[in-house]
Design goal:
eight-stranded mixed β-sheet; two-stranded antiparallel sheet; 2 domains
């Protein structure tokens, strides 16, 4: 039964179904995972990272890969807009996502769940031109306050690759300055979070390779009892942001030097590697070795 606050925790059958549904996209993007061994498996944590352009291209693969490599199930906090769309909200719910309110987050923490949060929210997803891989967190510190209050460690992570799946043709700033501006102002109270007009392979995303890196957990005990102290929350937020930005820089270097960045090379290697089941078994066995893990 689904709890009205903590939502639905994905079952083994649902995770297996997600794996089957995502396999074609996984094959096309060949995700690489770095430092999965830094992700705690003995206690819950708050997973905090950069939100990439359009948002949904890499997150499902990251969560599924993390589960397969570490056994951890992470629950996602989603933007309120997602849960206003019929069918889509049901799919998100079955994947373990909940509406990203403070109350829902606290309920998940009390239940001992590991949680994914993107402080940048929709504004970071709907980037403007020139904002590739920027953290756009405005003045948000809620995730830091809740982590301090509940003693949750924060695991910073970075995702690279999805920003290259599309080119931004017209961003929300340009739309607001066009004849459509008044319409956008009427349609949404947050016109700066309106999706840009993008192009990849036509309307479809380019199948770029995805890269994920997890940083060492940041313990929040240093700020214990200071959840209501804005200075403490800003200190923690800044430390998390620096870790994410370091990880982004590392992954972008990897991306530039990757000999398998081209789709044709990746597909040839995937086909030469045998069945996906054997690849996954080998990945799990080598999860504690240095270097990237494939999923």
């Amino acid at each position: 039964m689904t709890d009205p606050v903590t939502g639905h925790r994905p079952t083994a059958i649902e995770m297996a179904a997600a794996r089957v549904l995502l396999e074609p996209w996984r094959l096309l993007t060949s995700p690489l995972f770095y430092n999965v061994d830094r992700v705690p498996t003995d206690r819950p944590f708050l997973l905090v990272g950069n939100h990439t352009l359009m948002g949904v291209l890499d997150v499902p693969l990251m969560l599924l890969g993390l589960h397969e490599l570490s056994g951890v199930i992470v629950r996602s906090l989603g933007d309120h807009v997602h849960f206003q769309v019929p069918v889509w909200r049901d799919l998100l719910t079955h994947c373990g996502a909940v509406d990203g309110t403070r109350e829902n987050c606290e309920a998940l923490m009390r239940a001992g769940e590991s949680i994914l949060v993107f402080p940048g929210g929709a504004r970071e997803v709907f980037k403007h031109k020139g904002e590739q891989y920027h953290l756009i967190w405005k003045s948000r510190t809620g995730f830091a306050a809740l982590a301090i209050k509940h003693g949750y460690p924060i695991v910073p992570f970075a995702a690279v690759g999805a920003e290259e799946c599309y080119d931004i043709l017209v961003d929300s700033d340009e739309l607001r300055q066009s004849l459509l501006g008044p319409v956008l102002e009427w349609l949404t109270p947050r016109p700066d979070e309106f999706p840009p007009i993008v192009a990849g392979l036509g309307p479809l995303p380019r199948p770029q390779r995805f890269y994920f890196r997890f940083e060492a957990p940041i313990e929040t005990r240093r700020w214990a009892g200071r959840a209501g102290d804005q200075t403490a929350c800003l200190e923690l937020r800044a430390e998390v942001a620096r870790a994410i930005e370091r990880a982004i820089r590392f992954l972008r270097r990897v991306q530039r030097r990757d000999p398998a960045a081209a789709l044709a090379v990746r597909l040839a290697r995937e086909l030469a590697g045998g069945t996906s089941g054997r690849r996954r078994a080998a990945t799990r066995a080598g999860n504690r070795r240095p270097g990237p893990q494939r999923r």
